[in-house]
Amino acid sequence: MAGRTAGAESQAKPDPIRVRFDAFELDEANASLVRSGSAVALAPTPFAVLCALVRKRGTLLTANTLLDEVWGHQHVSDSVLRTAISELRTALDDDARQPRFIQTVSRRGYRFIADATDVVAAPIRGNVAAVQSFVDSSFIGRAEPLRRLHAAWDKACSGKRAVVWVAGEPGIGKTTLIERFVAGAGDIACAQGQCIEHYGTGEPYLPVLEALAGLCRSDATLPLGSQPSRPDRSTPIC
Fold first, then answer.
1. Helix orientation angle between 174-183 and 143-157, rounded to the nearest 10 degrees
2. Where are the domains of the chain?
3. Which of 39, 128, 190, 219 is 20 to 30 A away from residue 226, measured at CA?
4. What's the topology of domain 6-118?
5. Strand positions, DSSP E, 11-60
6. How many CB atoms lie within 10 A of CB 228?
């Protein structure tokens, strides 16, 4: 069993990307994928896989690398990655046999093969209202849910405990809403954990452990213990 060094854990997250490829525009900071001006519904996990691939476009990323980057060194099976790739191909209207965007390298990994150009936001001049309109152009119809989140946060800050649920259909924008709320909450520590479908016995408190691990990794003053490396996989990639 091999441990990873503290330096690997304490690396800063890369800057969010914003690129155009074909008819698509990918904006990682705003959790947005747009095709010809229309939003493309994409769940958070395949979105994160797409960002990882596009960030290193033209480079072969092994299954282990993608699992580490997206699932944070958790012991999950290759099937969750294959499912995410399948959802991506559906969203991008890509064909695995004749790919335009995501190429499968048999038994090794995946490569983003489309030409992509970085998008640099032009400086915005004018009054505050114009700037706010630009920032919120992809955040329409969610003012009331955002207000309710901030109201609950204010109560929590005053000592009144509360649990808030954000519910809705897949792709409706729950993650975008929460990310916008967190971005406006100021200098806070935010712990995140996600539920992943397991095939077989799984860790019942995995989301809680992931949230705690994320907090520990974000604090450079904490000592980092070694963790077992992921075993090699020989499962075919499709």
1. 50
2. 6-118, 142-218
3. 190
4. Arc Repressor Mutant, subunit A (1.10.10)
5. 18-21, 24-27, 32-35, 38-39
6. 11
**CB-count exposure of residue 61 (10 Å: 0-12, 13-18, 19+):** buried
pLDDT at residue 4, rounded to an integer: 39
* Model confidence, pTM: 0.51
Question: Helix or strand or coil: residue 35?
Answer: strand
pLDDT of residue 18: 93
Neighbours of 30 (CB within 10 A): 18
pLDDT band at 156 (very low <50, low <70, confident <90, very high): confident
Distances (CA, A) of 15 to 12, 28, 29, 55, 177: 9, 9, 9, 10, 20
Which residues sit opposite 110 in a β-bridge?
61, 104
Residues 6 and 174: their CA atoms lie apart, in Å, by 33
